[in-house]
Design goal:
Helix content is 46%, strand content 11%. It is α/β, with parallel strands linked by helices. The protein has 2 domains: 3-243, Alpha-Beta Barrel (TIM Barrel), CATH 3.20.20.70; 252-320, Non-ribosomal Peptide Synthetase Peptidyl Carrier Protein, Chain A (Orthogonal Bundle). Helix 7 (118-129) runs parallel beside helix 8 and helix 12 runs antiparallel to helix 13.
């Protein structure tokens, strides 16, 4: 891998993850070495309609820069109006999702449904570019059906329309998140365009990150589910790429320290609603720890943030006996 790729404008990228990528999660990813973070996918229709819940997703802390706000939609005029409302917030990038495979998104002609209508995808990007000076990026998939491959054609079109970088997830909509990601698609896209390409899919170790960079020529990698409960992965990848050396695996106590920090950041962001939203994170932070099943069963019965914090502290005393 060329060193200029590692030290590009993006660094190692945190993926937009529905129900995960809030401010608390993004701040931790930045702290642990993510070079660029993404909001979760936000409805352009909801932004334009002024939906209070949707608008909350647009919030970010100044410490999160560089940050991309990711939106989805299928109507160029609506997306243009949404971009106009985002512009004053001054994120570093606005990302258009053209890869989400879930039914409630694609049934509206958005997300991965745009892989079936490249002309509309191009119109959407033109509308976005006419509405802001903020750089526009895109996230795409290989194609729609089981054997469809439109990623190269779409990437060339997006480059022509002014997109500054593309994230490629090399599965089709039909595949959802099943089967292995076909990294050859990323290589083909990279060979076909001049703009930076971010590779995404099946990266959960530093070694896999390097293999993707080496075999596809992509400019950097995006980490998604592997970062849930394990933000250390960003520094581990960066260190491995820079030096070929691995960082030590965090101890049980270290993992719970960061879990508690994450929880406190979430309390600051979400208040009383923190406990339910953090349950999935706590599951990942405590995977493989002794007596974790009992601990999680207890946590899942609690609703008071102060009580949850006390239980995490108590559990930390338990796991120290096993280190």
């Amino acid at each position: 891998m060329q060193l200029n790729k590692l030290h590009s404008q993006f660094g190692i990228v945190q993926a937009p993850l529905a129900g995960i990528s809030n401010t608390a999660f993004r701040l931790l990813c930045r702290e642990f070495g993510a070079g660029l973070v993404f909001t979760e996918m936000i409805s352009a229709d909801g932004i334009v309609q002024g939906n209070a819940r949707t608008l909350r997703y647009l919030h970010f802390d100044p410490q999160e820069h560089p940050i991309a706000i990711q939106i989805f939609g299928s109507k160029p005029d609506i997306i243009a109006r949404a971009v106009e409302k985002i512009d004053p917030l001054k994120p570093d990038y606005i990302d258009i999702n053209m890869g989400c495979p879930v039914h409630k998104v694609v049934k509206k002609g958005a997300g991965a449904a745009l892989l079936k209508n490249l002309a509309l995808a191009g119109e959407i990007v033109e509308a976005m570019r006419n509405s802001t000076d903020i750089p526009i990026t895109a996230k795409i998939r290989s194609g729609w059906g089981k054997h469809d491959r439109v990623a190269v054609e779409l990437s060339q079109l997006l480059e022509e329309k002014g997109i500054v970088a593309i994230t490629v997830h090399p599965r089709t909509q039909w595949q959802q998140f099943k089967e292995h990601a076909d990294w050859e698609v990323i290589r083909q896209v990279k060979a076909a365009v001049q703009i930076p390409i971010i590779g995404n899919g099946d990266i959960n170790t530093p070694e896999k990150a390097k293999r993707m960079l080496d075999t596809t020529g992509c400019d950097t990698v995006m980490i998604g589910r592997a970062a849930i409960g394990y933000p250390w992965i960003f520094n581990q990848i960066r260190t491995f790429l820079e030096s070929g050396k691995g960082l030590p695996t965090p101890s049980f106590s270290e993992r719970l320290d960061v879990c508690l920090k994450h929880f406190r950041l979430a309390v600051r962001e979400l208040g009383i609603n923190t406990v339910e939203s953090m349950r999935k994170h706590i599951v990942f932070y405590t995977r493989g720890m002794p007596r974790s099943t009992q601990f999680r069963a207890e946590i899942f019965r609690l609703l008071d943030p102060n009580t949850v914090e006390d239980r995490i502290n108590n559990y930390q005393q338990v796991v120290r006996m096993f280190e």
